[in-house]
Specification:
binds fe (ii) ion; 2,3-Dihydroxybiphenyl 1,2-Dioxygenase, domain 1; about 25% helix; 9 helices; golgi apparatus
Length: about 375
């Protein structure tokens, strides 16, 4: 495991602030949004579709604190063609990861000058709440990044969407609160040999820098291995780990993702909570299912913690009962857990993470996590 201290030169203009929202292209946006609401604790925020004058795309926007997901589906046969092709190839998948930025034009111009492919030149949309400026470029696979400058906008999401604040879903009002606060990191899986080029794309075009990395000598099981580099913006408010498979005895879980996704794409979105025990207890009460960790993991953990300076405040029996993983060093620890895939294809899954003075990504857990994933992979006949 390597941590980096060199942030590289500070960009002379433009600033990345945070993840703005994530757009999923799915077969049935109405139902996908409902699943994330009932199972994951999101609430309906906004909508666009035929009733609002959006003739080609229906989009349902859901929110939980600072996390906003947009589920979009095409309304007509074969249109927009790109949307249909994306669905055929990837199934329900993340299409766009949007960043809130300052000085969008500077960031866009620099990225394009340095070689980023343009998907959408800067454009502006407005309503009674002001105006928003956006631009979109291509990153790995068929995934895109949209830059959003909302400094002259006071609305809760974006123009062209109708807000949902009238009818409260009677089911949601009866479900326990989850408390996911913000997006902690978003991971992109790459085919073999594509991690370094994807990393360099962020370094060159967005002026991101390396934050953390692991290689296959550090992260491997009997069967499979993985390499990962985390890139981040100058202020280190946006973390994007980039993974690739490494050759093992059998198929890497990253390779399984790449096969089922049809190339590179977003593998998981990690969302932060301040109370993971409450979040996971309530997610399980809502019927969410998570990776199960072998009992030996917690036995080893208790032994390792005895020899460590760090004190985990949470009750270990409770963490074990909920299958929550712990990674730590002398200064702090993190708690994390991973859902099973969120759709039929073994592609995207979600992570819930709580940080206690620890900025890692759970490298200490990768091995046991891999073993848990491999057990599921074997069940799918893919190991
Ligand atoms: Fe993660």
């Amino acid at each position: 495991m390597t941590t980096y201290t060199d942030k590289g030169p500070k960009p002379e203009s433009g600033r990345f602030l945070c993840f703005d929202h994530v757009t999923f292209w799915v077969g049935n946006a109405k139902q996908a949004a409902s699943f994330y609401c009932t199972r994951m604790g999101f609430e309906p925020l906004a909508y666009k579709g035929l009733e609002t004058g959006s003739r080609k795309i229906a989009a349902h926007v859901v929110r939980q604190n600072k996390i906003i997901y947009v589920f979009a589906s095409m309304l007509e046969p074969f249109q927009p063609e790109e949307c249909g092709q994306h669905l055929l190839k990837h199934g329900d998948a993340v299409k766009d990861v949007a960043f809130e930025v300052e000085d969008l034009d500077a960031i866009f111009k620099r990225a394009v000058e340095r070689g980023a492919s343009v998907v959408h030149e800067p454009w502006e949309v407005s309503d009674d709440n002001g105006s928003v400026r956006m631009a979109t470029i291509k990153t790995y696979g068929d995934t895109t990044h949209t830059f959003i400058d909302r400094s002259r906008y006071t609305g809760p999401f974006l123009p062209e969407y109708k807000l949902i604040n009238d009818k409260k879903d009677p089911l949601l009002t009866n479900l326990p609160e989850i408390g996911l606060l913000l997006i902690d990191h978003i991971v992109g899986n790459q085919p073999n040999e594509c991690m370094t080029p994807a990393t360099e794309w962020y370094e060159k075009n967005l002026m991101f820098h390396r934050f953390w990395s692991v290689d296959d000598k550090q992260i491997h099981t009997q069967y499979s291995a993985l390499r990962s580099i985390v890139v981040t913006n100058y202020e280190e408010t946006i973390k994007m780990p980039i993974n690739e498979p490494a050759v093992g005895k059998r198929k890497s879980q990253i390779q399984e993702y790449v096969d089922y996704n049809g190339g590179a794409g977003v593998q998981h979105i990690a969302m932060r909570t301040n109370d993971i025990i409450k979040s996971i207890t309530n997610l399980k009460a809502r019927g969410m299912t998570f990776l199960e960790i072998p009992p030996t993991y917690f036995k080893n953990l208790r032994n390792q913690l005895k020899n460590s300076k760090v004190e985990v405040k949470e009750n270990l029996d409770e963490l074990q009962r909920l299958n929550i993983l712990v990674d730590f060093d002398d200064d702090g620890y993190l708690l994390q857990i991973f859902t099973k895939p969120m759709q039929d294809r073994p592609t995207l899954f979600l992570e819930v993470i709580q940080r206690n003075n620890h900025q890692g990504f759970g490298a200490g857990n990768f091995k046991s996590l891999f073993e848990a994933i491999e057990a599921d992979q074997a069940e799918r006949g893919n190991l």
